[in-house]
Specification:
The chain is 43% helix and 17% strand. The chain is α/β, with parallel strands linked by helices and 180 residues long. It starts with a helix and ends with a helix.
Length: 180
């Protein structure tokens, strides 16, 4: 019986090593979303200061869209911004923006300084839509299909590799489904 107790730490170590070893196979940058294949939460955001129109679900209806959550206070958003400008100029997919937790006028000043890739921008100063979307930080981007369902969630900066390898192929696939 006492020999069994000698092997107990070894058994415990092997079990823990297997548990953590399997965990290393997961991609820590992928954060699962409860919204995948579900409808985008209902929203109707006011415009950011200086803009005439805000953003609502109706603006995304009937087309594959990118919905990007950003903030002027967000350093990674500034890194991502040139790529969003490139995507917007390409015309592959319309890009919509949610200005998250910015003080009045900050989002407008930021877009005037850096360029505006968005067809429409909604103001989410208290973060209510961000909570409904399950935002963990900015930037985050959602691909929404023509039926208003979230088909993909990207957490972090959209790089050229992410655009060419993941987002663009999915957008084109969803657009092809529309034409079929």
């Amino acid at each position: 019986m006492s020999r069994l107790f000698l092997f107990l730490p070894l058994v415990f170590f092997v079990v823990m090593a297997l548990y953590f070893g399997l965990g290393l196979r997961e991609d820590p940058s992928e954060i699962p979303s409860q919204l995948i294949d579900r409808e985008l939460p209902e929203f109707d955001l006011p415009p950011i200061e200086g803009f005439e129109t805000g953003l609502s679900n109706a603006d995304l209806a009937g087309q594959v869209s990118l919905l990007n959550v950003f903030g002027s206070w967000c350093p990674p958003c500034a890194i991502e911004h040139p790529m969003l400008m490139q995507i917007s100029r390409s015309g592959v997919v319309p890009v919509y923006g949610v200005d998250w937790k910015d003080p009045p006028g900050a989002g407008t000043a930021w877009l005037e300084r850096n360029g505006n890739p968005y067809r429409r921008v909604g103001d989410d100063p208290d973060g209510r839509l961000a909570i409904d979307l399950g935002i963990t930080g900015a930037p985050e981007t959602f691909i929404v299909d023509r039926d208003g369902r979230v088909r993909y969630r990207h957490v972090g900066i959209i790089t050229e590799e992410v655009w060419d390898g993941t987002l663009r192929p999915l957008v084109e696939h969803l657009q092809a489904e529309e034409g079929a």
